[in-house]
TrEMBL record:
Name of this protein: Aminotransferase
Family: Belongs to the class-I pyridoxal-phosphate-dependent aminotransferase family.
Domain Aminotransferase class I/classII large residues, every copy: 32-381
Cofactor dependency: pyridoxal 5'-phosphate
E.C. number: 2.6.1.-
């Protein structure tokens, strides 16, 4: 019997991988499932993106291996995007590394900087992949609390009381997933100062800045942030290109070079046509975001009605692709609550518990559901 590596004992199958298998089974049995669980945009990329890819397919030079660093014009488009949208200047030659989705960047960064036994600060609640990747590389997750009474932001007094000597990395993500908390430049300034004080590499995971958010921000807007920080970003949510797997990591050349050493040993470059599509997406004007947000705003209004129908209290300040809501008093288990709705009303909602212990008592709705389907979900109650 061939045994698996011990590192697999530290992780479980990703929640959505197993839960969506159950949802698909219910659908195969004829159940009319409305999936409000996962944040996979159902809207299409722009026409310019599709045309760019279609044209690139005909390019006879576009079918071979591509550069690990991506096309120079794609890195330039990424740099221009950060300059136009955030006022952040980055060198496209050595301060940007394109990724096959920002999720792979979490693994690349961890492999590049973490030794076995290093500690990693992870938000609770937060993206589950931060924990699983930390475990896979043999590092130690150390959770810091985010709570509603503190606007889902870190408590710096509590942070300073943690054993920080072994901490190598700190993950954060604003706008925050799953709550939708916006964060602020003042918060980013505190985080950069904290990272410098304790010699910690700070990484902001920033894929939601342009969804229902009138004030997009980047951690790299803070003066001196590049000394200690990286930022991950993605075209998945902003440009409805989740399945295309286009992301990026930005930071100073020495840190980016370390990540490249890992990445260059794990793939052979992004497909040429997808890079051409990404360039077209990054050149979209302001109307692209406005048109998308008109749709998401109407969906959010309906989804809030659904949450209130369930006697939940919506976190109204949230932005991004989800609605975060507090369960009614007396509900002991978010997972039991959503399972009852799944089996009785055939609506799939995400329990807050998959994002950490501070997610207990909360549920998360995705806005990647057409208005008529959200209305149908409301009508089922």
């Amino acid at each position: 019997m061939i045994t698996t590596a011990k590192r697999l004992d530290t992780v479980e199958e990703y929640y959505f991988s197993s839960k969506l298998r159950e949802v698909r089974q219910l659908m195969s049995e004829g159940k009319p499932i409305i999936n409000m669980g996962i944040g996979s945009p159902d809207l299409s990329p722009s026409k310019a993106v599709i045309e760019a890819v279609a044209s690139a397919i005909q390019d006879e030079n576009g079918h071979g291996y591509q550069s690990y660093q991506g096309l120079p014009e794609m890195r330039q488009a990424m740099a221009d995007f950060y300059k136009d949208q955030f006022g952040v200047t980055v060198n496209p030659n050595n301060e940007i590394l394109p990724l096959m989705g920002s999720k792979e960047g979490i693994m690349h960064i961890s492999l590049a900087f973490l030794n076995e036994g290093d500690h990693v600060l992870i938000p609770n609640p937060g993206y589950p992949t931060y924990t699983s990747v930390t475990n896979l590389v043999g590092a130690v997750p150390v959770y810091y609390d985010l709570k509603e009474e503190n606007s889902w932001e870190p408590d710096f007094e509590s942070l300073e009381k943690l054993e920080l000597e072994k901490v190598k990395l700190m993950w954060l993500g604003y706008p925050h997933m799953p709550t939708g908390a916006r964060g602020s430049l003042a918060l980013f300034e505190k985080l950069v100062a904290f990272a410098k004080k304790h010699n910690i590499l700070l990484i902001n995971d920033n894929p939601y800045s342009f969804v229902l958010n009138d004030n997009p921000m980047s951690l790299l807007q803070v003066e001196g942030a590049k000394d200690v920080a990286l930022e991950l970003n993605s075209l998945s949510k902003t440009f409805n290109m989740a399945g295309w797997r286009v992301g990026m990591v930005l930071g100073n050349p020495e840190i980016i070079d370390a990540v490249l050493k890992v990445k260059s040993n794990m793939d052979s470059g992004m497909y040429y046509g997808i890079q051409k599509g990404a360039i077209a997406a990054l050149k979209c004007d302001k109307s692209w975001f406005e048109d998308n947000n008109k749709i998401y705003r109407r969906r959010r209004e309906l989804t809030e009605k659904l949450a209130e129908k369930l006697n939940c209290k919506v976190y109204k300040e949230g932005v991004g692709l989800f609605v975060w809501a507090k369960l009614p008093e007396g509900i002991e288990s978010a997972e039991k609550f959503i399972d009852e709705i799944l089996y009785e009303k055939h609506i799939f909602i995400t329990p807050g518990t998959i994002f950490g212990s501070n997610g207990e008592g909360y549920i998360r709705f995705s806005l990647c559901v057409k208005e008529e389907k959200v209305q149908e979900a409301i009508d089922r109650f």
